Amino acid sequence: MKKMKGILALILAAILVCGLFAACAKQETPKQEEPTQQQTATTPKEDPKKDEEPAKTEEPGKTDEPEKTDEPQTIDPDDVEELVMYYYDFRNKVDVSQHVEDAVNEILVPAIGVKLDIKWLGIGNWLNTFTLDMAGGEQLDIINIMPATTLEGMYSNNQLVDLTELVPEYAPQTFELMKDYMGPFYVDGRLYGIPTNKNFRVDGYLVMNKEMLEEIGMLDEAKNCSSRSEYEAIAQKIKEYYNGEVYASEAGFTNPSWLPNGDSFADVRCNDFLGAQYYVATDDDGHVSLLQGTDGYKQSIQMAKKWLDNGWLDPELATAERTHATEMLKARQGFSTNVTAEYGVEVAQGGNLGYEVVCPKFFDGVIRTNNVNSWGAGVTVNTVDEVLAVKTLEYIYNSSEVMNLLNWGVEGVDYELEDGLVKRIGDNPYFEHDAFFGNNLIMTPLAGNEPDFYQIAQKINDESVKSPYLGFAIDPTGLDNVIANMSAVYDQYNGQLTSGYYTEELYQEYLNKLEVAGVNDYLAQIQDQLNSWLAAQ
Question: Which CATH number goes with the domain that contains 303?
Fold first, then answer.
């Protein structure tokens, strides 16, 4: 481009007498129309340079790096811009993360002229540090959107940069990759974040101890388990074989993500609870109802009572700490549980529990707003350069090298490759989690997974059923008091009912107390919001 400008300058100078230079000076680039909400949600912004050679694109799930030239790039140190990024430190390893930050910057500085100052923050100090930094005007360019600092919360506090035009223009590959999932990051028709690319669909699985299944001779039955009654037969065998010293289940069968519908797992219905996981049920026709009032919820608490009465369900679940079930499973005093989980559940659950597990699926999930909008990336209003921040996200989202560094650390220090898969070195403390930031689906998989694990996950995302309400999020404004009232009722009753202590009297008392707490007004407001959202689609 510089050579072309030089040639053009010589030509213009030579023919200045002809008046062409003046004519050229009066030319203007036609102004681009601002894209509509629908356009920005589905197609990249029109590029004024569209007649030039198109930029290189990549297929989703591939590990190609952003386009590089054959010529070595030399960045003047004075031209390097330092950006500050908040990164969620899942395992509190800030003291052992500097070498990872250094390795990331060895890539970013020569590639795009950016040096990242990464603030590794755990859940304990994330929100307080963020609040103080934003209020104090401290530089903060890239933020990891997460449950502690939600998109809705930061938008309400005017803390996020509007990315509607910036992402299609300065992060086109990322926009193309994520455009089908951007919906939950729009507020009032404007884009304020980029979702983390990860396994979006969560399905329902039973998680059973493989060694115990082999001991009772029911491994094949577990692998092919397709109904509640088949699972109960396994539970009874566990009780008999271990003389009641091992509880067959460390969880009831109640979850806002699914609603039982008879004996067969094939009839379990997936529920989009619209992010209000304790109270909302929806159907496919846009109707909102009380989760606890559905037939599926009642079936689940009656099922829990049956399991408790038969000695299959751990009786301490109603009052125990949240970690109790996991501790029982790890100690092999519990045989099984049920979870909503992403693809790769056997490796993940087996790694967590410390032994091999068998995980038959009992329902197929759909991709919902809360699967997508919990984790992502945004640019804060305290940024020193919003364009450069977006360009940095573009590079990270398309660099398997950077993503491997952020999640697994430095090869040879934090992990080694075994048959092309990541295996941590000893008890090295740097080792993150592949769900929180960036484009997880271009990373090298962990040992124990298939080599094409992330490509399969991308394919599952692309082929999954998406909820008709994907992109809708509840606006809780004005609902704080009723939510607090409902939460108090929930805490009083729900644990008892879902842990097997169902009586019809207790159940009806629960429903009555929720009504007094204002649940009908709460549901009515959500219905109104959903109706308005649907009308705008």
Answer: 3.40.190.10
Asked if the structure places residue 49 within a domain, the reply is no
Q: Which one-letter DSSP state was computed for residue 183?
A: G
Q: What sign has the CA pseudo-torsion 222, 225, 227, 230?
A: negative
- For residues 444 and 422, the answer to whether their CB atoms sit within 8 Å is yes
Contact partners, residue 211, CB within 8 Å, separation at least 6? 355, 356
| 495 inside domain | yes
Give tens-digit pLDDT for 259-303: 999 999 999 999 999 988 789 999 999 999 999 999 999 999 999
> Is residue 510 within 8 Å of 291, Cβ to Cβ?
no
**Residue where the block lists tokens 């048959």:** 419
10 Å CB burial of residue 310 (0-12, 13-18, 19+) is: middle
* Inside any domain, residue 230: yes
The two three-digit tokens of residue 499, written as one number: 């842990």
* pTM for the full predicted model: 0.76
Least confident segment among 33-47, 176-190, 336-350, 426-440: 33-47
Cα(367)–Cα(359) distance, integer angstroms:
21
